[in-house]
């Protein structure tokens, strides 16, 4: 029962936690853009891997994730 | 969700005339349990999912029976929804009979209250309407 | 041997709960067989029918006040408890958040929505059944499917935008933007199946108070939620309670034992809320009667009990030496002044009748359980 050795995160070690179907895997294959919202001007900022984290309109460096598109169920209590 | 709020589909044997215009708290297959140590004239009944609402009202109704020597109720622990109901009677009746009479008397009381309340309300509404007109 | 009947005085004494300077005495009811030797007190419906009285003071949809006279506290309390906790009503139970970019968090919004009182056709509400949620410990085989007879669907789909017509210097966000405030009236009802015949026009499911503020937004923010309303009871969650308050108090009783005259009478009246104690001149006849305590006080003001109903039973008057032994405070044991405030789903008077009905149903069900036990 030896503990797993620490793996330095790198591009190559992307799939250390799951082989194929993981989010990271899809990322590595398609390299799609993910939309963020600018913290300053609320503009939609599509970013790809390796892009500079910066709003294309105002140059602000704080970006937020969009809210999930999934339905979320709550109990009204 | 408390035990009392159940689908009413399972409460079909509602032959009583009071049945289902509104379907409030249903009972499912809950029964009254007789606690150990009961005799004909002295018994403790366990009501599941019941509290002071019925406990105290029923105690009043049962105590109104002259054949009942002792009647009392307790909720042994606040975190289980159980009510214990003790009846001791004279030899002229049994504890179960006294309990049944208690239910009957309470239902009669409810009828009288409904009747008088409806009459008083209708009278009040009529008087109010008359006052408005004049 | 015919049972003894206590004297009028004795009966009156038993009806009053004594309120003393520092104690309350004569509290428990004693009208049970065996308590008073020789007296009956056995349950008799006919006698109850003769003695029980209902007296209405007020009857509005949202508030009713009435007296029940001749009832035991155990029964009156049962009605009150049922009124608050066991009459089924419709309320928002599940909230499906499709989108919410406003600053109010989903779970907070959901909780808020649940508390909004709803109303609709009473006939339709009575027609509706329980919705049984899948429990955590069971396989869900007993759970209900959402159907027209157990689930009402409401939607809230609002987006805040800038108002192009707003004045340049406008400061009020409600004029500056569209939908800056989200109100209960923004919820829309979507009838399904047989609901289309029950909940139409005036009978549609809608909030009792359209102006309840649910959330605030700024341009670009959006709320899109679907709500499922189910029937439930107050014992499960307060949002299902059909009443805002359901209370009773006992009718206060004030007895002036010895005359209170002149300035004392004014001071005495000030110990009570307005209208409880009145002042009347002592008549010549009273003043002429020896030993009445009014001798030589003809024409002076004396204190009389005008309307004990308005009293709050403060014991202020018992604190003064000059009233010592002259007044007796109490409450009438079997005179319950009920006050029922409905949240709006049902009329207040209907709620009380409903409570009596629930009580009877409970009795019938337990009695059936008892019969099963015997079988």
UniProtKB/TrEMBL annotation, chain A:
Gene3D superfamilies recorded: RNA polymerase ii, chain L
Regions annotated as coiled coil: none
SMART domains on file: RPOLCX (SM00659)
Any one of the GO CC terms: RNA polymerase II, core complex
Key words, A-Z: Metal-binding, Nucleus, Zinc
Biological process terms in GO annotation: DNA-templated transcription
Localization per record: Nucleus
Domain of life: Eukaryota
Pfam families reported in the protein's UniProt record: Zn_ribbon_RPAB4
Main location as per UniProt: nucleus
Gene Ontology molecular function terms on file: DNA binding; DNA-directed RNA polymerase activity; zinc ion binding
Family (UniProt): Belongs to the archaeal Rpo12/eukaryotic RPC10 RNA polymerase subunit family.
Stated name of the protein: Metallothionein-I gene transcription activator
Organism: Penicillium alfredii
Organism lineage string: Eukaryota, Fungi, Dikarya, Ascomycota, Pezizomycotina
TrEMBL record, chain B:
Pfam family, one: RNA_pol_L_2
Keyword Transcription belongs to the record: yes
Keyword annotations of the record: DNA-directed RNA polymerase, Nucleus, Transcription
Residue stretches spanning the membrane: none
Biological process annotations from GO: transcription by RNA polymerase III; transcription elongation by RNA polymerase I
Location relative to the cell: Nucleus
Domain DNA-directed RNA polymerase RBP11-like dimerisation: 43-115
Name this protein carries in UniProt: DNA-directed RNA polymerases I and III subunit RPAC2
Automatic annotation (TrEMBL), chain C:
Keyword Nucleus part of the UniProt annotation: yes
Residue ranges of domain DNA-directed RNA polymerase RpoA/D/Rpb3-type in the record: 63-369
SUPFAM superfamilies on file: Insert subdomain of RNA polymerase alpha subunit (SSF56553), RBP11-like subunits of RNA polymerase (SSF55257)
GO cellular component: RNA polymerase I complex; RNA polymerase III complex
GO biological process assignments: transcription by RNA polymerase III; transcription elongation by RNA polymerase I
Keywords, comma-separated and alphabetical: DNA-directed RNA polymerase, Nucleus, Transcription
Entry-linked PROSITE patterns: RNA_POL_D_30KD
Family annotation (CDD domains): RNAP_I_II_AC40
Family: Belongs to the archaeal Rpo3/eukaryotic RPB3 RNA polymerase subunit family.
Protein name, entry field: DNA-directed RNA polymerases I and III subunit RPAC1
Organism: Penicillium alfredii
